[in-house]
Every structure is written in structure tokens, then in C-alpha cells.
Amino acid sequence: MYHVINGGNQQKESYQTFIDYCCRAFNYIRRNYIILANLLKIMACSDISGMNVESLNFVEKNLMLELSETDAVIQFTQLINHSLKSAFPRINFFFHTLAQVMTSTAANSARNNDTVLSFVPQLYTQETDGKIKRVRVISFEKRFLPSKVYLYKVEVIRVSETLSTYVYRSFNEFNELYIKLRRRFPTVAFLALSPGTKMRSNVREVAQRRMVDVESFLRYLFTLSPEVCHCDLVYTFFHLILRDSDIDSYIDTEEMQADAHRNQCEVYLKIQFNDNKHQSQLSIFIGHVKHLGLLSTGQAPDAYVKTYIRPDPQNLTKRKTQLYYDIMDGEHVLSTRVLEISVWNCGGLMDNNKMYMLYIPLQKLKNQPEDRKGNRILEGWFAFDKNI
């Protein structure tokens, strides 16, 4: 499961996003515990098998209601990390993947008509479309048809046309062409298309690896005899269909908006201020940072976060891990101070360098309403001002 979340063995941003969503759901359940408890009590009173008072106590204990949201998130994150290292989720995921592969295999076996392609309603030939001079793979793009799929953009150059045409085909469609060409020409040694993986394959990393296989397959195909490379199956495959002429309509709008901000580094913060009679306290919880840039070497940074309350010429407010500040004059600090947050790369002894920086005026906390415990909370994603 860890491998699927990250798209490989190396931890990536998607792993932190997964944990973030899990923690949000966990805290949402905690906030609505009364509703959940009432439902469980009704189920226990209805003689539902396995539901009793012990069940309610079990749920209450595991929701960690005695902890604050920040502490509960920390504990819950540790539980997620522990569960991902356990053998039971791996076994469960293996059986889910096996069932998916079996279903996909059964669907592919249903395509038993070797004379036509499943995604083009009729056959086309060299006479109807014009002789193909050359084809080449340009790139691959993510589309929704309606589910997510990676399509390979292929340039088709014909002898009788001055302008190139572009078709978009998925790896499964290339594989279908390969299988049906082999069945029609059993004596021809076609260059095989590598499936890439038997696990989750609809991810960007796999699509990028498969692009090399697709390009090699097409290059080799057009070195074969005209009987093979100019047969009706090949021309049907490269015939323009509705999808090719209206490819931009298959883009998810939310996905486009996400791509627009994909390179902007952001940090998730929960800033909490409590002003009591004796002493005020400012606490800062840093969830995680996303969209961190790579180092000049191409490697991921070994990042950590520093915080200061500015102005602070002597850096007395510097914190790295324990982000709590005891403040004598809370209202004055909120009105005049600025929270500085910076991301650093640990490059070794005396070789740390600053990567990103962000300033948040603490005045923003004064505009937040107080909760029943007297806390003012500023929470959410904050974009870094600059890339150092």
C-alpha cells in the first residue's frame, strides 16, 4: 500500500496528502462524536450482533477524545505509519489487486473479434485515409473518459497531406492492436509491448515508462512488410475519431486548477493563541510542507522548519521542533509581531541552506473569533512568499 500511495518505494508528496486527508476525517468524526455515539447506542439497543456497551467504549477510546486536535493528529499519524508497515494491509491490498487483475483479464478476453478494434466502429484502409509515411509519439497526457487514463499523443504524417494529424490512444488500445496483429500475422515477430506492472498501472510513472515501449513498437511496426504495416487494422487504429478532435473536453477542471498551483510550495499550519489572566500562550502546529522543489543534484531535500517571532535581533524566539511561546503581553505581541517560517535543507555539518520563507502577521489572529476555551485559531494552507 505504501508503494501505491507513493507510486514507488520513495516517499513522495502524495504520502503526506494521504495522511492529511486521513487526519481531517479523523478529526471530523471526533467533532461529531455525539451523533456517532447516539447511532451506536441505538444499534446496541436494537440487539444488532456484535454491538454492545463495550463496542461504544472501544470507539470512544480509539477516538482519543481526551486529547486536543493537534495531539490527536500526531497520535493518529503514528498509527497510520505503523499500520502501513504491518503485514495485514499488504495482504489485503494484494487480494484487492489480484481481483482487479482477474476482472481486467476477463474484460480483455471478451474482445474476441480479430477483424476490428473495439474503440473504432468500422474498418479504414490506405485507400480511404491516405498512405501513412511516418508516425511518432509526441508525449502522454492525462484525460478523463470518464475515469482517469493516460493517452499517448501520436503524430501521423501522410504522403498526400501537408499537415500532420494527431491521435490520442491509451496503452490498452496499443496492446489491443498488438494482440490482433499477432493473431492475424502469426508468423511475424512483432516487438512486444511490456505491460510494465501487474500492480496499479494507471499512474504517471508507469505511463512514462511505457512511452518508450510504445515508441519502439511503432518504429518497428513500420519497418515490416507493406502487407503488415499498411493493413486495415493499422489504418483503423490511426484513423481520427471524435476523441482526437475534441481532446481538450476530456480535461478535469479541478485537475487543471491543481496543476496551476502544483509548483507553489505551501505549508499547512495551525496557529493557536490563548490569552489567560496570568500568561498568554502561542502554539504553532506544522502539519507538513508540499510541493518542495528538488535540489540542484536532482535529489529530494532533507528538509526541516524553523520559526521566529520578528522582530528578534538575537533570535531568542527560534524554534525547530517544540513550537510553543509563553508571552507576557499577548495583545501587544499580536499587534506588533510577525511570525517567520522558513524551510531549510540539512546538507551536513555547517552546510544547511534556506529554501523557502513565509511571513504571517500575528495581527490576523486578533481577527479570529474565540472558541469556548478562549482560543483563537488560524488554520490552513499558506503559500511561501519566495524561493530562496
UniProtKB/TrEMBL annotation:
Pfam families (UniProt xref): PX (PF00787)
Coiled coil location: none
Domain (PI3K/PI4K catalytic): give its ranges.
Answer: 1-88
- According to the entry, every stretch annotated as the PX domain falls at 130-245
Q: Which UniProt keywords apply?
A: Kinase, Transferase
| GO annotation terms (biological process) | cell migration; phosphatidylinositol 3-kinase/protein kinase B signal transduction; phosphatidylinositol-mediated signaling
- Asked if the record carries the keyword Transferase, the reply is yes
PROSITE patterns associated with the record: PI3_4_KINASE_3, PX
In the record, what terms sit under GO molecular function? 1-phosphatidylinositol-3-kinase activity; 1-phosphatidylinositol-4-phosphate 3-kinase activity; phosphatidylinositol binding
Please indicate which superkingdom the organism of origin belongs to. Eukaryota
Naming one, the record's GO cellular component terms include:
phosphatidylinositol 3-kinase complex
Q: Which PANTHER family match?
A: LD28067P, PHOSPHATIDYLINOSITOL KINASE
What name does the UniProt record give this protein? Answer: PX domain protein
Instruction: Identify the species of origin.
Output: Ancylostoma ceylanicum
Supply the source organism's classification: Eukaryota, Metazoa, Ecdysozoa, Nematoda, Chromadorea
